[in-house]
Amino acid sequence: MRWFKVLNKAQIPTIDSIKTITVDGRQVCIVNNADKIFATQSYCPHAGGHFDGGWCKNGNLICPIHRYEYNLETGRGAEGQGDYINIYPTELREDGLYVGFEESWWSKLWG
Ligand code: FES
């Protein structure tokens, strides 16, 4: 696992909001759902909508384009969608928020 500091504590999105950040040139969405922080891929697998304009509902991230839903814990799409999004582990440390990426995933995509 490779960890990146992505935000200072003061920059973490407020409850039920989403912020897009760039990690080494790539976009990731930081989602605050009921004061729990998640990191997800930024584009919806359905038709490429950006999650930045989306919102949270019942632990799911809702895409603003066609309202597909993705579980923030597992990344799974709602029943019938047959898709999923990448969820990356987050860690709140003394100096801010960190997001972890699998080494194999990282080097395969962004090597
Ligand atoms: S692009 Fe996200 S639901 Fe269609």
Automatic annotation (TrEMBL):
- One Pfam family per UniProt: Rieske
Highest taxon listed in the record's lineage? Bacteria
Q: Which cofactor does it need?
A: [2Fe-2S] cluster
Query: Which positions make up the signal peptide?
Result: none
The record places domain Rieske at 3-99
Entry annotated with the keyword Metal-binding = yes
| Keywords assigned by UniProt, alphabetized | 2Fe-2S, Iron, Iron-sulfur, Metal-binding
Q: Which PROSITE patterns match?
A: RIESKE
> Of which family is this protein a member?
Belongs to the bacterial ring-hydroxylating dioxygenase ferredoxin component family.
What is the name attached to this protein's record? Rieske 2Fe-2S domain-containing protein
What is the scientific name of the source organism? Pedobacter fastidiosus
